C-alpha cells in the first residue's frame, strides 16, 4: 500500500513521516514550494521535537519523498490523505476551500481506485462534499472511476506530535464501505498495541468526534481559568484545588491547568466552528459559547494584574515577556495569547521586550505590526531595566532561573506568572512580588 499526503504542515508532515517510519512508501505534496524546498534540502519547515531526524532517516531509506507536482502525487498513493488547513471563515465556520481544492486535484488526475482520507479537522458533512467534488471532476473528464472517502481525524498535540502519532490512544476511522474499511484497518495495523486502537464508526460520527474532543478539552481549561480567578478572590490556591479535583479518576489530572487562555491552531477555531455548525442546525451550544467568551477574557488576565499595579497608563514602562509560542515545544504562533498581551501593553504605551527559545522568528513575522515590541536573544537580556517580568509560555528553561540575576536585571523584583511556574511562598522568600493565576 502506497500513501500520498496532501498538505505538508504540522499534521501532514508528521503523518507522512510516521507512516514512512513504519515501513510505508509515502509521497508528501504541498502547494508551497518554499516548504518543499526546505524538506528536499534535508531541513523541516516547522519546529517539532524529533521530527527532523525522522524525516532524514526515512528520506535516506527511500521511503519518504516530497513534491509540488500534483499529478505525480496523485498517481503515487493508493491512499490519499488530505491534511490541508481548515482556517476559520469570517463567521467562525471552517473554510473548506483547501480541502475541496485537494479533492478536485485528486479527481482531475486519478486513474485507478483511491481511498481519500479527510485527516484535516472538518465539519460534519464534509466527506459528502469531498465525494461530490471528486465525482464532479471525474465527470468533467468523462471518467467514472471508483473511490471511497473516509474520515480519519487527527488527535496529535504539537510538541508531542511524534509520540501521539506513533502511540495513539485511539485511531478514529469513519467509513461507509467495506473495501475502504479493510484498507484503513490494514494501514493502521502497525499502530495497534496491547489492545485494539482502531475505532471504526460511520463517517459523520467520526467527523463530530474530533470537534467534540477538542471542545471538551477547551471547556476544561476555561472552567479551570474561571475557578482560578474565583480562587484568587476567595483566598484559595487553585493548584491545591487542581490536585484535589484531578485525583478523582472520573476527572483526571489532564488539561486542568489554568493559565493565560488556550491558543493554538485547533482549540480556538474548532470551538468556533462547532458553535457555528450547531447554529446552522438550529442548536445554541450555550456552554461552548461561554467557553470561548471566558477564554477571550482570560488572555487579558495578566494585563489586568499589571494595570492593577501600575494604573491604566503604561507609558514609560517596560515589560519583559518570557514565552511567545502558544505552548512550549513548538514555534507555532497561531492564536498565541502572547499576541493579545503584547498588543494590549503596547496600546497602553508600554515597551515590551520578549524572549522565546524557538518561536522568535515566527513571532517577528506575525507580530511585527505591534508598536514598541522588540525581541531579545536570551532570557536574561529581556529583563534589563524592565518594570516587571511576565511569563506567558511555560518553557522548561524558565522553570529554575537564577533568581538573583533576575532580581538584579529588573528595576524591581516583580513577576506576573501566567503559567504558575513557581511556588508563591518560595518567590516571596526570595524577595519577589509574585502574582500568579488563581493562588
Ligand atoms: P498547516 O497550515 O501547518 O499545513 C497545511 C498545509 O497544507 C500548508 O503547508 C499548505 O501550504 C498546504 N496546502 C494547502 N492547500 C493545499 C493543496 N491544495 N494541496 C497541497 N497542499 C496544500 O496546518 P496543520 O496545522 O497541519 O493543520 C492541518 C489540519 O489538521 C487542519 O484542519 C487542523 O485543524 C488539523 N489538525 C491540526 C493539528 C495541529 O496540532 N496543528 C492537530 C490535529 C488536527
Ligand atoms: C490540541 C489537542 O490537544 C490535540 O488533541 C488536537 O489534535 C489539536 O489541538 P495543540 O493545539 O497542539 O493540541 O495543544 P494543546 O496541548 O492541546 O494546548 C492547547 C492550548 O491549551 C495551549 O494554549 C495550552 O497552553 C492550553 N492549555 C492546555 C491550558 O491552558 N491548560 C491545560 O491544562 C492544557
TrEMBL record:
Domain UDP-glucose/GDP-mannose dehydrogenase C-terminal: residue ranges: 320-424
Family in the record: Belongs to the UDP-glucose/GDP-mannose dehydrogenase family.
Stretches of the chain forming a coiled coil according to its record: none
Record carries keyword Oxidoreductase: yes
Class of the enzyme per the UniProt entry, highest EC level: oxidoreductase
Bilayer-spanning residue ranges: none
Organism: Chromobacterium aquaticum
Pathway noted in the entry: Nucleotide-sugar biosynthesis; UDP-alpha-D-glucuronate biosynthesis; UDP-alpha-D-glucuronate from UDP-alpha-D-glucose: step 1/1
Single GO MF annotation: oxidoreductase activity
Name of the protein in question: UDP-glucose 6-dehydrogenase
Cited PANTHER family: UDP-GLUCOSE 6-DEHYDROGENASE TUAD
Enzyme nomenclature, EC number: 1.1.1.22
SMART domains: UDPG_MGDP_dh_C
Keyword annotations from UniProtKB, A to Z: NAD, Oxidoreductase
Catalyzed reactions per annotation: UDP-alpha-D-glucose + 2 NAD(+) + H2O = UDP-alpha-D-glucuronate + 2 NADH + 3 H(+)
Lineage of producing organism: Bacteria, Pseudomonadati, Pseudomonadota, Betaproteobacteria, Neisseriales
Amino acid at each position: 500500500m502506497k500513501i500520498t499526503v496532501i498538505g505538508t504542515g504540522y499534521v501532514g508532515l508528521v503523518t507522512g513521516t510516521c507512516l514512512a517510519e513504519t515501513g510505508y512508501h509515502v509521497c508528501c505534496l504541498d502547494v508551497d514550494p518554499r516548504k518543499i524546498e526546505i524538506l528536499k534540502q534535508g531541513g523541516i519547515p516547522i519546529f517539532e521535537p524529533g521530527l527532523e531526524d525522522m524525516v532524514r532517516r526515512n528520506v535516506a531509506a527511500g521511503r519518504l519523498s516530497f513534491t509540488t507536482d500534483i499529478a505525480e502525487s496523485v498517481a503515487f498513493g493508493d491512499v490519499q490523505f488530505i491534511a490541508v488547513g481548515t482556517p476559520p471563515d469570517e463567521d467562525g465556520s471552517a473554510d473548506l476551500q483547501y480541502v475541496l481544492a485537494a479533492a478536485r486535484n485528486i479527481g482531475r488526475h486519478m486513474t485507478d481506485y483511491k481511498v481519500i482520507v479527510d485527516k484535516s479537522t472538518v465539519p460534519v458533512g464534509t466527506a459528502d462534499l469531498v465525494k461530490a467534488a471528486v465525482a464532479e471532476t471525474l465527470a468533467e473528464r468523462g471518467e467514472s472511476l471508483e473511490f471511497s472517502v473516509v474520515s480519519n481525524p487527527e488527535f496529535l498535540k504539537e510538541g508531542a506530535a511524534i509520540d501521539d502519532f506513533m502511540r495513539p490512544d485511539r485511531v478514529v476511522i469513519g467509513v461507509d464501505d467495506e473495501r475502504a474499511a479493510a484498507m484503513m484497518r490494514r494501514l493502521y495495523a502497525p499502530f495497534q498495541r496491547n489492545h485494539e486502537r482502531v475505532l471504526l464508526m460511520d463517517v459523520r460520527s467520526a467527523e463530530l468526534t474530533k470537534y467534540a474532543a477538542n471542545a471538551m478539552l477547551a471547556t476544561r481549561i476555561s472552567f479551570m481559568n474561571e475557578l482560578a480567578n474565583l480562587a484568587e478572590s476567595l483566598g484559595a490556591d487553585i493548584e491545591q484545588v487542581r490536585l484535589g479535583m484531578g485525583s478523582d479518576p472520573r476527572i483526571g489530572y489532564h488539561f486542568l491547568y489554568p493559565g493565560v487562555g488556550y491558543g493554538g491552531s485547533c482549540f480556538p477555531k474548532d470551538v468556533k466552528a462547532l458553535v457555528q455548525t450547531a447554529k446552522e442546525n438550529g442548536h445554541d451550544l450555550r456552554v461552548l459559547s461561554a467557553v470561548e467568551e471566558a477564554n477571550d477574557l482570560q488572555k487579558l488576565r495578566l494585563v489586568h494584574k499589571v494595570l492593577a499595579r501600575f494604573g491604566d497608563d503604561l507609558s514609560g514602562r517596560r515589560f519583559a515577556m518570557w514565552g511567545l509560542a502558544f505552548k512550549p515545544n513548538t514555534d507555532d504562533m497561531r492564536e498565541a495569547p502572547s499576541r493579545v498581551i503584547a498588543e494590549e501593553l503596547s496600546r497602553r504605551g508600554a515597551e515590551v521586550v520578549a524572549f522565546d527559545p524557538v518561536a522568535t522568528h515566527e513571532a517577528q513575522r506575525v507580530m511585527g505590526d505591534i508598536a514598541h515590541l522588540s525581541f531579545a536573544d536570551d532570557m536574561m537580556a529581556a529583563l534589563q531595566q524592565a518594570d516587571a517580568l511576565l511569563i506567558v509560555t511555560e518553557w522548561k528553561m524558565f522553570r529554575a532561573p537564577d533568581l538573583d540575576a533576575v532580581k538584579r536585571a529588573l528595576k524591581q523584583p516583580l513577576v506576573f506568572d501566567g503559567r504558575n511556574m513557581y511556588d508563591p511562598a518560595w518567590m516571596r522568600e526570595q524577595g519577589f512580588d509574585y502574582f500568579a493565576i488563581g493562588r
